[in-house]
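hiii, so i know i said id send this last week but things got crazy w the move. better late than never?? heres the sequnce for the chain we talked about at the cafe, plus the structure i predicted for it. fair warning i was half asleep when i ran it
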Amino acid sequence: MQHGIICSMTKDRFGYFGWPSIAKQDDGTLVVAASGYRNEHVCPWGRTVICKSKDEGLTWTIPQVVNNTSLDDRDAGIISLGGQRLAITWFTSNTFYYFNSKKDPKTGQWADGYKEMGVVMDTWTDKQINKDIGSWIRVSPDGEYWGEPMQAPVNTPHGFIVLDDGSWMYLGKKWDIEIAGLKTLHRHNAPIQAAISKDQGATWELLGMVPCPEGIIYDQCHEPHVIQLKDGSLLGSVRVHNKFSVMLTRSADGGKTWSVMEPFVASGSPPHFLRHSSGAIICVYGYREQPFGQRAKVSKDEGRTWSDEIVLRDDGPTSDLGYPASVELANGDIMTIYYQQEKAGAKCSLLWTRWSL
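okay and structure toks below
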């Protein structure tokens, strides 16, 4: 097992990077997308950035800004569309929603520690929020030029997948289109729902919602990922927030109906699936109990049974880490990327682990 750095700017005022995804272009170029040039975990400055490697992760380009809306651009997913084509997904967040209690309604003054962010948030008008907030997709023919943003009805950190027939399957948290005339954050109590696009993201059809088992409500369910199995059915995984665990669900009809979620990972989240050339399915997830780090499970029978946990890393200084995602390298090794602090007190960096089955 080898570990390395994609991007580290721990001493920079805007050196916080998090929630990454990875894709591989047909020429072997690795592309990592993340939310970067941030000040901290929740702030108004997040931008969507990409880093590239042409030597299987040994060296990486500096982060290039792809999206910089007026709001906080978060949770970037990146998907290979074949050849050099890529799609990038992300959502925008109204940071004021989280910090409005820090502003005195009588004086308009922000509390100490929030004044700098307040200067930015005070410039946001309802018109600007209405324009920029949502779940978004951009497509690139080559990983260099990016097309205009398209909206999606659901969102999840690692984005949609491409099915065998070329359709885009997006299992995510459903977004409200409008509330009181103003688009807003996706509701925490919104369902986990599938959506499909047969025209490269121009239009979407909402499909089935994932049922919760007894004792679990949608407010606790977030950040799913899905994989198509060899028989064409779908295996979905969902982060259950109150326990920071993963549950599995299945669909045999293309996402129209889903099975009630069942336990999978007792501790750790959110999940990401990869189909390995050996046929195995690899699921990686962050581990936010001591020892903090990144872990994986492997299935060789289409998700019916899974291996014991594989510890990819257990040296995280704090629980602010995770969102791992993987691609397969030319020799069959796996490149798993994630965000994590390099040492206590440092801003979060983008890191990688190279490992093999």
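btw Residues 2-94+133-355 form a domain with the Neuraminidase fold (CATH 2.120.10.10). thought thatd interest u
miss u guys!!
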